[in-house]
């Protein structure tokens, strides 16, 4: 992976993974009788690339909350906090000046549980 843009590598791995986990690219809608359904309409996962003028060492040792600049590690996309019609998954890759990166995500917990999210994240890692 040396010499490659980590954000682009992850974005490509995400695209490959979404072939199998396509509901994450849909939107939550209200169906008959008020039931929530995932409309698989390929509206997309929100993916953000960012750069930060900090190093991993500046976050402290050991790495534990509270983190400085925590709010900047996951951009607040308008509409992403809405239960209905918003993106079900938001991913941000922030490249650090030391060459490291921070992978952040926000997902609608209606779409899967922790085990499902872990499987999805593992699949992205395998594709990368």
From TrEMBL:
Keyword Transport appears in the UniProt entry: no
InterPro entries: CAT-like_dom_sf, Plant_acyltransferase
One MF term in the entry's GO annotations: transferase activity
A UniProt-annotated Pfam family: Transferase
Coiled-coil segments: none
Transmembrane residue ranges: none
Keywords recorded for this protein, A-Z: Transferase
Domain of life the protein comes from: Eukaryota
Protein family membership: Belongs to the plant acyltransferase family.
Name of the protein in its database record: 13-hydroxylupanine O-tigloyltransferase
Lineage: Eukaryota, Viridiplantae, Streptophyta, Embryophyta, Tracheophyta
